[in-house]
Amino acid sequence: MKNLLFISLITFFVFAVSADWDEGDGHKMHWPQEPKPQGLDVEFAMTMLADDWQCTWTGPVDDIHFWVSWKENLIQPINQISVTIFSDIPADPQDPTTYSMPGQSLWDADFDFALGQFERRPMLPDEQGWFVAPTDPTQPGTVIPWQAGDHEEWEQINITKISDLMQPFNQEEGTIYWLGLEIFTEDLSGVLQPTPFVGWKETDRNWNDDAVWMNIDPPDGYPDLYWTELVNPELGTSIDLAFVITPEPATIALLAIGGLFIRKR
Q: 124 FRET partner, CA 20 to 30 A, in 81, 93, 106, 139?
């Protein structure tokens, strides 16, 4: 009877944590970078956006959760999400003009919505500002304040059970990595193009250095991998992005069950 109860508990918890992420759920990074209420949304457009995290739990990166919103509430289909995990190039402590940025690409994968490789979870509407990264990396970008009826719609994107699809990236405790994201939608001819009107949500709690962006079609004279830090040009404040790296569901389930038995004893 006890064994049956134990198996039932495992089944329940694995199912319960298999997709969406909510405040208080598990994570394996410095802390969950949750969305900032009424914060900025950084437009993807022709860019890759990236932010760093520190691993707190050695093992596979099996689940990735992040939040996006839609300019002018123009919700679009998302056909593919490209994920890249980079090593960290730290800032030079002797040079205050430097900032940390992604280094070597350690792992990358494409996730297809039609194949059920990620899920979209609508969230309650929120009044949000919009940040447009400039085409020229030397320029500061543009902040568009919230206006009634504009970019209130947002959602949580859940890429889960990566190890069921492919060999996941194995992170090591104490190491800093960068999560890079690109979002694509098929045009009328079926060719993938950068998804318009979508932005990665700002987080409410900054960690380490600023997030960065890279123009995937840089102007002449710039290298292909030219990372620019994300700073609010009006306030001069750092912009970090909202995401969570979590353990595989079975690990969360075992931890939850362990907690139940400890409390029972």
A: 81
At 34, list the tokens.
């949750």
Q: Angle at the Cα of 241 (from 168 to 235), degrees rounded to 5?
A: 160
Q: In sequence order, what DSSP letters do the residues of 152-208 get, joined into one string? A: --EEEEEE--GGGTS-PPEE-TT-EEEEEEEEEEE-TTS-EEEPTTEEEEBBSS--S
Say how many residues make up the chain: 265
Q: What pLDDT, in 10s, does the model give residues 127-160?
A: 888 998 776 667 777 887 776 667 789 999 999 9
Q: What is the dihedral of CA 252, 257, 263, 265, to 10 degrees?
A: -140
| Residue 258, helix vs strand vs coil | helix
CA distance 253 to 255: 5
Read off the pLDDT of residues 75-102 as tens digits, 9 standing for 90 and up.
999 999 999 999 999 999 999 888 999 9
φ and ψ of 111, to 5 deg: -120, 130
**Strands 40-43 and 129-132, sheet pairing:** parallel
What is the identity of the amino acid at 55?
A: C
Name, in order, each residue with C-beta under 8 angstroms of 80's C-beta and a sequence gap of 6 or more. Answer: 110, 111, 112, 113, 183, 184, 192
What value, to the nearest 5°, has the Cα angle with vertex 62 and ends 56 and 65?
85
